[in-house]
Design goal:
Helix content: 25-40%
Structural class: alpha+beta
Strand order of the largest sheet: 1-3-2
Shape: globular
Oligomer: single chain
Radius of gyration: 13 Å
Number of strands: 3
Distance between the termini: 42 Å
Length: 68
């Protein structure tokens, strides 16, 4: 496991897994898998897990190249 330190984004950028999943059209389970495999960072706030919406936009939305 790496010792990278990741700074926590401002609280306004964080959203619950349910809200993020709905916004990006994926399941909560998919977001949990992406946190587990290190694709995205999850932040525990008490018992809740939050994700950074800007980070999701960067890492989950991938442009598909066209042949034109």
């Amino acid at each position: 496991m790496s010792n990278q330190k990741h700074t926590m984004p401002q609280a306004t950028d964080l959203a619950s897994l349910a809200i993020a999943a709905e916004q990006y059209g994926v399941s909560i389970k998919t977001l949990r898998r992406r946190i587990a495999d290190g694709t995205i960072h999850g932040y525990r706030v008490g018992r809740l897990i939050r994700v950074d919406l800007d980070e999701l936009r960067e890492k989950l939305l991938i442009e598909i190249p066209t042949m034109r």
